[in-house]
Automatic annotation (TrEMBL):
MOSC domain location: 28-165
Protein name from the UniProt record: MOSC domain-containing protein YiiM
GO molecular function, one term: pyridoxal phosphate binding
Signal peptide: none
Amino acid sequence: MKADILAVLLGKVRPFRGDDEPSAIGKLPVADVVAVGAMGLAGDEQADRTVHGGIDKAIHHYPADHYDWWRGYLGDVPLLDAPGAFGENISISGLDEQNVFLGDRFRLGSALVEVTQARQPCWKLDHRFQTKGVMAQVVKTRRTGWYYRVLEPGAVRAGDALDLIERPYPDWPLASLFGLLIGGEAKSRLADLTALRDVPVLAETWKARRAKLAEQFGAD
Protein backbone atom coordinates (compact mmCIF):
# COMPACT_ATOMS: atom_id res chain seq x y z
CA MET A 1 0.00 0.00 0.00
CA LYS A 2 1.53 3.25 -1.17
CA ALA A 3 0.03 6.68 -1.77
CA ASP A 4 1.24 10.16 -2.61
CA ILE A 5 0.95 12.85 0.03
CA LEU A 6 -1.39 15.54 -1.26
CA ALA A 7 -0.61 18.07 1.47
CA VAL A 8 1.47 18.57 4.61
CA LEU A 9 -0.20 21.04 6.98
CA LEU A 10 0.90 23.06 9.99
CA GLY A 11 -1.05 25.22 12.44
CA LYS A 12 -0.34 27.97 14.95
CA VAL A 13 -2.19 28.54 18.21
CA ARG A 14 -4.64 31.43 17.94
CA PRO A 15 -8.01 32.43 19.45
CA PHE A 16 -10.66 30.00 18.29
CA ARG A 17 -14.05 31.43 19.20
CA GLY A 18 -13.39 35.14 19.09
CA ASP A 19 -12.52 35.06 22.79
CA ASP A 20 -9.64 33.56 24.73
CA GLU A 21 -10.21 29.93 23.71
CA PRO A 22 -6.94 28.92 21.98
CA SER A 23 -6.63 26.31 19.24
CA ALA A 24 -4.33 25.29 16.42
CA ILE A 25 -7.00 23.35 14.50
CA GLY A 26 -6.71 25.80 11.62
CA LYS A 27 -3.85 24.12 9.75
CA LEU A 28 -2.57 25.27 6.34
CA PRO A 29 -0.61 23.48 3.61
CA VAL A 30 3.11 24.19 3.30
CA ALA A 31 5.30 23.58 0.26
CA ASP A 32 8.65 23.31 2.00
CA VAL A 33 10.29 20.22 3.46
CA VAL A 34 9.16 19.74 7.08
CA ALA A 35 11.23 18.00 9.72
CA VAL A 36 9.48 15.11 11.50
CA GLY A 37 10.43 14.46 15.12
CA ALA A 38 9.10 12.58 18.12
CA MET A 39 6.59 15.33 18.92
CA GLY A 40 5.40 15.74 15.34
CA LEU A 41 6.02 18.16 12.49
CA ALA A 42 8.39 21.06 13.06
CA GLY A 43 6.42 24.30 13.21
CA ASP A 44 3.10 22.67 14.12
CA GLU A 45 1.49 23.70 17.40
CA GLN A 46 -1.20 22.42 19.79
CA ALA A 47 -3.02 24.64 22.27
CA ASP A 48 -3.86 22.03 24.91
CA ARG A 49 -1.15 19.42 25.13
CA THR A 50 -3.17 17.40 27.64
CA VAL A 51 -5.50 16.25 24.85
CA HIS A 52 -3.66 17.11 21.61
CA GLY A 53 -0.19 16.27 20.40
CA GLY A 54 2.41 14.33 22.34
CA ILE A 55 4.22 11.11 21.55
CA ASP A 56 1.10 9.06 20.77
CA LYS A 57 -0.62 11.81 18.75
CA ALA A 58 2.35 13.39 17.05
CA ILE A 59 0.79 13.56 13.56
CA HIS A 60 -2.88 13.71 12.60
CA HIS A 61 -3.99 12.16 9.29
CA TYR A 62 -7.48 12.78 7.86
CA PRO A 63 -8.49 11.03 4.62
CA ALA A 64 -8.99 13.38 1.67
CA ASP A 65 -11.58 10.94 0.29
CA HIS A 66 -13.99 11.82 3.11
CA TYR A 67 -14.35 15.39 1.89
CA ASP A 68 -16.88 14.44 -0.83
CA TRP A 69 -19.10 12.80 1.77
CA TRP A 70 -18.90 15.86 4.00
CA ARG A 71 -19.82 18.13 1.07
CA GLY A 72 -22.91 16.00 0.56
CA TYR A 73 -23.78 16.23 4.24
CA LEU A 74 -22.88 19.87 4.92
CA GLY A 75 -23.38 21.46 1.52
CA ASP A 76 -21.20 24.23 0.12
CA VAL A 77 -18.82 24.88 3.00
CA PRO A 78 -15.68 26.87 2.08
CA LEU A 79 -13.61 24.92 4.62
CA LEU A 80 -13.98 21.83 2.45
CA ASP A 81 -12.44 23.51 -0.60
CA ALA A 82 -8.91 22.64 0.58
CA PRO A 83 -7.21 20.22 2.98
CA GLY A 84 -7.08 21.16 6.65
CA ALA A 85 -10.78 21.36 7.47
CA PHE A 86 -10.42 18.74 10.20
CA GLY A 87 -7.13 19.97 11.62
CA GLU A 88 -5.09 17.30 9.86
CA ASN A 89 -1.34 17.36 9.29
CA ILE A 90 -1.41 14.88 6.42
CA SER A 91 -3.85 14.62 3.50
CA ILE A 92 -3.88 11.55 1.24
CA SER A 93 -6.39 9.80 -1.03
CA GLY A 94 -6.93 6.05 -1.02
CA LEU A 95 -6.57 5.37 2.70
CA ASP A 96 -9.34 5.34 5.27
CA GLU A 97 -10.40 3.81 8.59
CA GLN A 98 -11.41 0.56 6.88
CA ASN A 99 -8.04 -0.17 5.26
CA VAL A 100 -5.66 1.33 7.83
CA PHE A 101 -5.00 -0.71 10.98
CA LEU A 102 -3.77 -0.10 14.49
CA GLY A 103 0.00 -0.57 14.54
CA ASP A 104 0.50 -0.08 10.80
CA ARG A 105 3.98 1.25 10.15
CA PHE A 106 4.47 3.64 7.26
CA ARG A 107 7.43 5.39 5.73
CA LEU A 108 6.26 9.01 5.71
CA GLY A 109 8.76 10.76 3.49
CA SER A 110 11.97 9.64 5.18
CA ALA A 111 10.40 9.25 8.65
CA LEU A 112 8.95 6.02 10.05
CA VAL A 113 5.57 6.38 11.76
CA GLU A 114 3.12 4.03 13.50
CA VAL A 115 -0.66 4.21 13.81
CA THR A 116 -1.65 4.56 17.49
CA GLN A 117 -5.40 5.28 17.54
CA ALA A 118 -8.32 6.73 15.65
CA ARG A 119 -9.08 10.38 16.27
CA GLN A 120 -11.66 11.00 18.99
CA PRO A 121 -13.60 14.10 17.88
CA CYS A 122 -14.37 17.05 20.14
CA TRP A 123 -16.78 19.99 20.19
CA LYS A 124 -14.37 22.16 18.20
CA LEU A 125 -15.46 20.47 14.96
CA ASP A 126 -19.03 21.72 15.42
CA HIS A 127 -17.76 25.20 16.14
CA ARG A 128 -15.29 25.17 13.27
CA PHE A 129 -17.99 24.23 10.77
CA GLN A 130 -20.58 26.41 12.54
CA THR A 131 -22.95 23.44 12.42
CA LYS A 132 -24.24 21.22 15.20
CA GLY A 133 -23.83 17.51 14.64
CA VAL A 134 -20.45 17.35 12.89
CA MET A 135 -18.83 15.66 15.88
CA ALA A 136 -21.78 13.26 16.15
CA GLN A 137 -21.51 12.33 12.46
CA VAL A 138 -17.80 11.62 12.85
CA VAL A 139 -18.71 9.13 15.58
CA LYS A 140 -21.66 7.66 13.70
CA THR A 141 -19.91 7.19 10.35
CA ARG A 142 -16.44 6.34 11.74
CA ARG A 143 -14.93 9.04 9.50
CA THR A 144 -12.49 9.86 12.25
CA GLY A 145 -8.98 10.12 10.89
CA TRP A 146 -6.11 8.79 13.00
CA TYR A 147 -2.81 9.56 14.71
CA TYR A 148 0.79 8.46 14.28
CA ARG A 149 3.70 8.23 16.67
CA VAL A 150 7.13 8.79 15.17
CA LEU A 151 9.49 5.81 15.43
CA GLU A 152 12.29 7.27 13.32
CA PRO A 153 12.71 11.00 12.66
CA GLY A 154 13.03 12.28 9.14
CA ALA A 155 11.49 14.83 6.80
CA VAL A 156 8.43 15.07 4.58
CA ARG A 157 6.89 17.35 1.99
CA ALA A 158 3.85 17.31 -0.27
CA GLY A 159 4.42 14.89 -3.14
CA ASP A 160 6.39 12.41 -1.06
CA ALA A 161 5.04 8.91 -0.55
CA LEU A 162 3.34 7.28 2.41
CA ASP A 163 4.43 3.66 2.07
CA LEU A 164 3.16 0.78 4.21
CA ILE A 165 6.15 -1.07 5.67
CA GLU A 166 4.56 -3.46 8.17
CA ARG A 167 1.10 -4.55 9.35
CA PRO A 168 1.52 -6.48 12.63
CA TYR A 169 -2.14 -6.28 13.76
CA PRO A 170 -4.41 -7.09 10.78
CA ASP A 171 -7.37 -7.79 13.09
CA TRP A 172 -7.68 -4.15 14.11
CA PRO A 173 -8.96 -1.84 11.36
CA LEU A 174 -9.39 1.63 12.82
CA ALA A 175 -13.14 1.79 12.23
CA SER A 176 -13.57 -1.35 14.34
CA LEU A 177 -11.19 -0.06 17.02
CA PHE A 178 -13.11 3.21 17.24
CA GLY A 179 -16.43 1.39 17.45
CA LEU A 180 -15.13 -0.74 20.31
CA LEU A 181 -13.63 2.01 22.48
CA ILE A 182 -15.62 5.12 21.55
CA GLY A 183 -18.60 4.08 19.46
CA GLY A 184 -20.55 2.17 22.09
CA GLU A 185 -19.81 -1.39 20.95
CA ALA A 186 -17.77 -2.55 23.95
CA LYS A 187 -20.60 -4.32 25.79
CA SER A 188 -21.34 -6.53 22.78
CA ARG A 189 -17.65 -7.19 21.97
CA LEU A 190 -16.15 -8.39 25.24
CA ALA A 191 -13.78 -10.84 23.54
CA ASP A 192 -12.37 -8.01 21.43
CA LEU A 193 -12.04 -5.82 24.49
CA THR A 194 -9.98 -8.54 26.14
CA ALA A 195 -7.89 -9.19 23.04
CA LEU A 196 -7.00 -5.51 22.72
CA ARG A 197 -5.20 -5.75 26.06
CA ASP A 198 -2.39 -7.58 24.26
CA VAL A 199 -1.79 -4.91 21.59
CA PRO A 200 1.04 -2.79 23.03
CA VAL A 201 1.09 -0.14 20.29
CA LEU A 202 -2.29 1.28 21.35
CA ALA A 203 -2.02 4.88 22.59
CA GLU A 204 -1.70 5.13 26.36
CA THR A 205 -4.93 7.11 26.79
CA TRP A 206 -6.83 4.46 24.85
CA LYS A 207 -5.22 1.71 26.92
CA ALA A 208 -6.75 3.43 29.93
CA ARG A 209 -10.08 3.66 28.10
CA ARG A 210 -9.93 -0.06 27.30
CA ALA A 211 -9.18 -0.93 30.92
CA LYS A 212 -12.07 1.21 32.17
CA LEU A 213 -14.52 -0.42 29.76
CA ALA A 214 -13.22 -3.89 30.63
CA GLU A 215 -13.83 -3.21 34.30
CA GLN A 216 -17.26 -1.75 33.60
CA PHE A 217 -18.46 -4.71 31.53
CA GLY A 218 -16.59 -7.51 33.29
CA ALA A 219 -14.08 -8.33 30.58
CA ASP A 220 -10.55 -9.45 31.40
